[in-house]
Amino acid sequence: MTENPSRQAALKADTRLTAYFANEDERRAVTRDMFDQAAPGYDRAEGLTALGSGAWYRRKVLRETGLRTGMLVLDVAAGTGLVSVAAHQLVGPSGRVVALDPSPGMLAELRKKVAVETIEAYAESIPLPDEHVDFVSMGYALRHVGDLDRAFSEYLRVLHPGGRVCIMEISRPASRLMRALLRFHIGAVVPALARLTRSQAEVKRLWEYYGDTIEAAIEPERILDAMRRAGFADVKCSVTFGIFREYTGCRA
Ligand SMILES: C[S@@+](CC[C@H](N)C(=O)[O-])C[C@H]1O[C@@H](n2cnc3c(N)ncnc32)[C@H](O)[C@@H]1O
Question: Whose CA is nearest to atom 8 of ligand 1?
């Protein structure tokens, strides 16, 4: 992560991360390549960072936000499956999980862990019928979505009436101290750990980008507004340690 002040300002002003890509097509190509390359080392790096707080946190959030036995779940941006595995455990044998992600490399890692249906696609264009699933989950990936309105409209469309959405995301901490700690953690501690554990260059590249996406994270209020605009009811956000956020809503 860079400390260059003009770049930091640019990232804050532009959630599209123009330092990395100029337009949506480039964003898709660059991030897909980054995730494909880093996929084999993703889980280890996630464990070192612990910013997503691992499988137990994802499982706890899913349970608390209404995921129940027997449900059909769409896990968007499933990646290597940290949320999909937790959802698979919670829905049990009478339920089903469909994992969606644009990165074939990440989905290949997911399939090594859990036997769920996988779909290679983007959140903004979900190849499923209307009113198809009971629950939509998304873990730590909203920062990579170019068009929130389209993604949230798609979530609403594929949900049954009464179905729920749960989006887990990290936000830029409001307090200066927390921001400094987070920057130190991602910019210094994680790269040092990655060096010690001989993580590949691809993982380091992804984690540098990861730090920048947190700096450029979309404000929580804008996310809540976009969910309401899409037509979600009972839209809420809970926050832990000023960083971990869960955005929830339901299809009326
Ligand atoms: C940080 S990983 C999160 C993986 C997993 N959900 C977790 O909790 O660890 C982000 C994932 O988002 C995916 N992604 C990026 N852009 C996306 C988009 N527009 N729609 C859906 N997924 C996207 C990437 O391919 C990557 O696998």
Answer: 139
